[in-house]
Amino acid sequence: MPEQLTPAESTMQNTHVYDARIAHNNAEARMDMYRFLASVYLQPPSEAIIKHLADKDNSEQLTSLFGKSIVAPLYEMALAFDSHRDLGELNQEYMGLFSVPTGKYVTPFEDVYRGLRLDGNQERGPLLGDRAVAVKIIYRSTGADLDKTCKELPTHVGVELSFMSFLCEQEEKYLKQDAENQASVYRQWQLTFLHEHLTDWFPQLRRAIETNARLPFYVLMAQLTQAFLEQDKNWLIQRFRADVSVGETETTGQEQ
Question: How far is CA 181 from CA 25, 84, 175, 187, in A?
Answer without folding.
Answer: 18, 51, 9, 10
